[in-house]
């Protein structure tokens, strides 16, 4: 099977460099995914320099996400069980969201009206991290 992250279709790319790309995921307003360009299975396959670069990128995005969206919590996850290509989920969480306090990868417990998101401004804000 072709890796969907090595062969992406219709990604909403906010920022890209020679090491990773940052995309906006429509499933949850404000949801960001950072994907390495190289097909790696585990975080520990990064060299030290890459690990620092990726970690700092995640930290910057989280900070900007808090400032822009003012969520109750940020969830950062590295799963890759379904798609074993290193990618980090950065997800804004609200105490009334459909999964709270569980993970957003679980079944929805209820509906929730997310705060309105100006996608264009949000993407510009995230892009300004780099
Ligand atoms: Zn891949």
Give a written overview of the molecule.
It is a single chain. The protein is an alpha+beta fold and 130 residues long. It has a single domain, classed as 2-Layer Sandwich (HIT family, subunit A), CATH 3.30.428. Helix content is 24%, strand content 21%. The chain has two helices and five strands. Strands 1-2-3-5-4 form a five-stranded antiparallel sheet, with helices on one face.
Provide a quick synopsis of the model.
The protein has 130 residues and is α+β, with helices and mostly antiparallel strands.
Shape: globular
Sheet with most strands: strand arrangement: 1-2-3-5-4
Instruction: Give the H and E element order.
Output: EEEHEEH
Query: The CATH topology, please?
Result: HIT family, subunit A
Name the helicity range: 10-25%
**CATH architect. name:** 2-Layer Sandwich
Main β sheet profile: 5 strands, antiparallel
Assembly type of the chains comes to single chain
In total, how many domains does the architecture comprise? 1
- The fraction of residues in strands falls at 15-25%
Low-confidence stretches: none
């Amino acid at each position: 099977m072709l890796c969907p992250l090595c062969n992406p279709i219709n990604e909403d790319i906010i920022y890209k460099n020679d090491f990773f790309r940052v995309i906006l995921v429509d499933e949850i307003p404000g949801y960001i995914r950072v994907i390495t360009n190289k097909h790696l299975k585990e975080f520990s396959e990064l060299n030290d320099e890459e690990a620092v670069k990726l970690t700092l990128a995640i930290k910057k995005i989280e900070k900007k996400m808090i400032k822009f969206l003012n969520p109750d919590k940020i969830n950062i996850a590295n799963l890759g069980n379904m798609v074993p290509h290193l990618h980090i989920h950065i997800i804004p969480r609200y105490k009334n969201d459909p999964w709270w306090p569980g993970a957003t990868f679980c079944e929805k417990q209820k509906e929730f009206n997310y705060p309105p998101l100006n996608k264009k401004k949000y993407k510009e804000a995230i892009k300004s991290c780099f």
